[in-house]
Amino acid sequence: MIARLAQRGSDTAPPSADTVAEFANGLVLRSLDRSGTVRAGEAIAFTSLWHVARSPDRDATLFVHLVRDGRPIAQVDRQPRGGSYPTSLWHVEDVVRDRFVLPIPSGTVAGTYGLIAGLYHHSDGRRIATATGADHVDLGTIEVIGG
Question: Counting beta carbons within 10 angstroms of the beta carbon of residue 14, is it exposed (0 to 12), middle (13 to 18) or buried (19 or more)?
């Protein structure tokens, strides 16, 4: 590798952004906006907002899982901004906005599903703990309606 380039942005945290979770690697999830209802076979669009309290020393991958009875029904795992701005290049006080989608399989049964999110190191698959020691954050529920 000759060099690593990052696509940085000039995002700012809205004054009303609450802290959703703090992670042991210094990243703080300030918000994760999404709709509350989705049709089976469609996708949920998300916008996450991250604040960097301490620069992480390794790249982290975000995961979001739609779960029922503790098992993933749908999931998306990705590095921020599609890999164009890896977390190891984030600087203290950066605010990073990221948009992504979670496709819901067309055969998903209508009902209420849990939504969880977290971070892990891609190199070894180990989840990064939150400040409370959990390996993920509970983001509430999503209602899936029939397709």
Answer: exposed
